[in-house]
Amino acid sequence: MDKPLKTPPPYPIASVDHALRAAAILQMEGGATVSQISERLGVARSTAHRILSMLVYRDFAVQDEDRVYRAGPVLEIAAHSQSLVSRLRAAALPHLRRIVDLLDETANLVVRTGDTARFIASAECRQSLRVGSREGMVFPAHRTTAGLLLLADLPEGELDGVYAAERYRDRPADRPDLARLRAELARLRRTGFAVNRERSERGLTAVGVPVRDRDGRALAGLSVSMPSVRYDPHRLQSLVTTLTAAAHALEDDLAERH
Question: Domain containing 187: what range?
Answer without folding.
Answer: 84-257
